[in-house]
Amino acid sequence: MINRVILVGRLVRDAELRKTQSGLSVASFTVAIDNRRGSQGEKSTSFIPCTVWNQAAENLYKFTKKGSLIGVDGRLMQRSYKKNDGTNASVVEVIADTVQFLDSKKDSQPRNDVPTEVRQEDENVDSIDLAEDDLPF
After folding, report:
1. Can you give the pTM of this predicted structure?
2. pLDDT by residue for the chain (137 residues), tens digit each?
């Protein structure tokens, strides 16, 4: 069976970043996708819920905002849960393996409001001093 999804669209709102109890980062976001239907090429829009994990989640939160153009490569997943009122509900979402930032670098400035619990890993990283001549590009 093949379960592969590739989307290109814009963020409907800023990604929501949170941490699991085990310390993993997870970001939830919605991508607006343009559709063409019918012989007249009428346009409509689909809003696709997505989730991304770990470093990709932190990068999405830090370097994108509402309206950012992104590419998502992942898989569809359906899950069921009970609502607060006791009824059953189901949701289909894309679990992203990779998220590509498609806006130009000058249009995307990093956020300074990254939650501190997400940045704790940064405190354990030693800085690396490199001369410009050492860089391969």
Report:
1. 0.72
2. 999 999 999 999 999 999 999 999 999 999 999 987 767 777 889 999 999 999 999 999 999 999 999 999 999 999 999 999 999 999 999 999 999 999 877 665 666 655 545 444 444 333 344 444 444 43
Query: DSSP characters for 57-81?
Result: HHHHHHH--TT-EEEEEEEEEEEEE
What residues contact residue 74 under an 8 Å CB cut-off, 6+ apart? 4, 5, 50, 52, 94, 95, 96, 97, 98
Is there a contact between 88 and 79 (Cβ–Cβ < 8 Å)? no
Fold of 5-134: OB fold (Dihydrolipoamide Acetyltransferase, E2P) (2.40.50)
Say how far apart CA 36 and CA 33 lie, in whole Å: 10
Q: How far apart are CA 130 and CA 137, in angstroms?
A: 13
Check the CA dihedral 96-23-103-67 and report its sign.
positive
